[in-house]
C-alpha cells in the first residue's frame, strides 16, 4: 500500500526538457518540497506522438511516481495535459496538476481582442484545447499556430541557431499580420526560446507563460490536502531521463543553470 506523507516528493514530468521551466519555478517558490523530475526524452516530443502513445506514457510515468510514494503529480506538458489528464485523474487519488495555455488571462489583458497561441500539432487539434478557447475567448479572436519541429530544435540544443530563429519567424509572421497584442506560449518548451520570440514580435506583444499559475495551483492543492512539507530544510530534487547521450545531459544542465546528474529512467 502506498504511504505518502508531508515529506513525500512531488513528481514532475514532461516529454523532455520543457518541464524544467515548470520545475524551476516550483523549486524556487516551494523550496521545502522534495521533487522528482522525469524527462521522457526518448518519446519527445509528445506533440508528434499518437494519442495512444501519449496516454501510455502518461500512465506509465504516473504509476512509477506512485511507486516512489509521490504525494502529487505535475503534468508539466500542455500536450499531455489536454490528451491524458482527465483519464489519469479518474485512476489516481493523489492531486494531479496539469498545464493549460493561458487563454483566459490573455483575453483579460488584450486591448485589441486579438490573441495568438503557439502550440504543438497534437494540442492544436485536441478537442479539450479547442473547448478551452471557446470557453474563455469572450468575443476575442484567438489565432492558433501549430509549431511542428520547434520542440525538436529545443530538445537538441538548437534554440540559439539561425534555423530556429527562421522557424520562429515563419510561425510568428501570420500572428503578427493578425495584429495580436498577447502571445500565449502553449508548450512548456517554448519559454526556452522566449528571448528569440521577443526579438521577433517586439515590445507591443506581451508573452504569457504557465510556470507561475501551475506553481500557484500546486501550492493550493498541497494546502487543501494538508500535505505541505513543513521541514525547516530545503528539499532535494532528483532528475531522471531515458535519453543517455552526454550532450543531452549538458543541455539539461545549461537550462537549469547548474550541473545536473540524471539517473536512468525506462
Layout of secondary structure:
Elements lengths: L9 E5 L5 H10 L5 E5 L11 H17 L4 E4 L2 H14 L4 E2 L5 H7 L4 E6 L1 H4 L2 H10 L4 E6 L3 H6 L6 H16 L4 E4 L8 H8 L4 E3 L2 H14 L12 E5 L4 H11 L5 E3 L2
Parallel strand pairs: 1-2, 1-3, 2-9, 3-4, 5-6, 5-7, 7-8, 9-10
Shape: globular
Note the total helix count: 11
Seen as an oligomer or otherwise, the chain set is: single chain
The total number of structural domains is 2
Q: Unreliable segments (pLDDT under 50, ≥5 consecutive)?
A: none
CATH class category name of the largest domain: Alpha Beta
Biggest sheet character = 6 strands, parallel
**Considering DSSP H and I runs of 4 or more, what fraction of the residues is helical?**
40-55%
CATH topology of the largest domain: Rossmann fold
Element-level helix/strand string:
EHEHEHEHEHHEHHEHEHEHE
Chain-averaged pLDDT: 91
Rounded to an integer in angstroms, the radius of gyration calculated over CA atoms is 18 Å
Query: Could you give the count of β-strands?
Result: 10
CATH architecture of the largest domain: 3-Layer(aba) Sandwich
Strand order of the largest sheet: 4-3-1-2-9-10
Strand content: 15-25%
Q: Tell me the structural class.
A: alpha/beta
Measured between the Cα atoms of the first and last residue, the distance is 23 Å
Amino acid at each position: 500500500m502506498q504511504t505518502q506523507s508531508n515529506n513525500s516528493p512531488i513528481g514532475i514530468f514532461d516529454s523532455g526538457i520543457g518541464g524544467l521551466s515548470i520545475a524551476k519555478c516550483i523549486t524556487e517558490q516551494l523550496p521545502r518540497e522534495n521533487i522528482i523530475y522525469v524527462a521522457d526524452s526518448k518519446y519527445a516530443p509528445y506533440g508528434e506522438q499518437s494519442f495512444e502513445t501519449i496516454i501510455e506514457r502518461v500512465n506509465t510515468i504516473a504509476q512509477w511516481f506512485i511507486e516512489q510514494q509521490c504525494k502529487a503529480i505535475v503534468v508539466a506538458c500542455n500536450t499531455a495535459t489536454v490528451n491524458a489528464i482527465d483519464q489519469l485523474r479518474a485512476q489516481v487519488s493523489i492531486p494531479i496538476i496539469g498545464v493549460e495555455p493561458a487563454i483566459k488571462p490573455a483575453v483579460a489583458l488584450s486591448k485589441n481582442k486579438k490573441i495568438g497561441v503557439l502550440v504543438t500539432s497534437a494540442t492544436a487539434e485536441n478537442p479539450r484545447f479547442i473547448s478551452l478557447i471557446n470557453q474563455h475567448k469572450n468575443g476575442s479572436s484567438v489565432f492558433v499556430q501549430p509549431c511542428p519541429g520547434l520542440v525538436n530544435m529545443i530538445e537538441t540544443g538548437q534554440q540559439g541557431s539561425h534555423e530556429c530563429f527562421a522557424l520562429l519567424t515563419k510561425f510568428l509572421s501570420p500572428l503578427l499580420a493578425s495584429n495580436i497584442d498577447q502571445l500565449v506560449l502553449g508548450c512548456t518548451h517554448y519559454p526556452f526560446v522566449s528571448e528569440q520570440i521577443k526579438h521577433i514580435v517586439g515590445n507591443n506583444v506581451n508573452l504569457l507563460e504557465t510556470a507561475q499559475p501551475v506553481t500557484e495551483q500546486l501550492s493550493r492543492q498541497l494546502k487543501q490536502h494538508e500535505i505541505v512539507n513543513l521541514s525547516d530544510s530545503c528539499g532535494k530534487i532528483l532528475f531522471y531521463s531515458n535519453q543517455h547521450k552526454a550532450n543531452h545531459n549538458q543541455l539539461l544542465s545549461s537550462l537549469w543553470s547548474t550541473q545536473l546528474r540524471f539517473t536512468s529512467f525506462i
